[in-house]
Amino acid sequence: MEVALWLFLVLMLGGALVFWRWGSRSRRANELADARAEAQRWYERLGGQLMNLHGDEPAVRQALADAGERYNAAGSQLEQARTTHQFALARETALEGLAYIRAARTAMGIDPGPELPPLAAARGAGMLTKEREVAVQGQTFRAGPQPGSRTPYYYPGGHMQGRPVPAGWYSTPWWKTALGAGAGVLGGMLIADALFSPAFADPGYGYDSGYQDGFGDGQDYGDPGGNDFGGQGDYAGGQGDYSGGDFGGGGDFGGFGGGDFGGGDFGGGGDF
What we know:
The protein is 46% helix and 8% strand.
């Protein structure tokens, strides 16, 4: 009798284990299918927008070129994806492309279309709300909330060396140099400091004095006087929430947007 009871318990436990493993595999398969469908949906939407938009203005051409590069990158990622995280990365790249599509439509003077889910890599970066112009190492750099002949390069927002870089339009894609070594990295940080640290861009402050005050060494890029961050001044920031997963940064600057996932599941593939 006792042997039969033990045998019954073993069979019950074995059956429960088999049922649990079957349910776990089924859930993972469903999650994978959902992630694939979600990424594919945004990818196809990006492709459709690219086919239907054309423009001759520099800002339009550049935004569409950036969107096309994200489309190619997302397609490559979809082909290689085998996990939900990889499909989420492809989704993020497609969403970046659609952010450039919205920028192109804005530059064309037409309705940019419906809002997109927040980009994971742009979380907390904010958005430019007024124009800025600074001189760094003998060159003039401009940024602002609207496209123009002097600001034809759009960036959807991200982070550089741990500091936020807001979405907006720029006179040159200076962030590309931040992926380089030596002078390229230093130059990118100097430009970021000049454009976004309060002591640089506010009237009455010189570039050199602001850098010496500590804005160039990564100590504190918060809002010491209600100038730049938190929606008080130059750009209205905010913490976005990406419902599709959690990305630890990584993108256009090797830590900015979602185009280049160096160190992630995809060893590159993006614009910069």
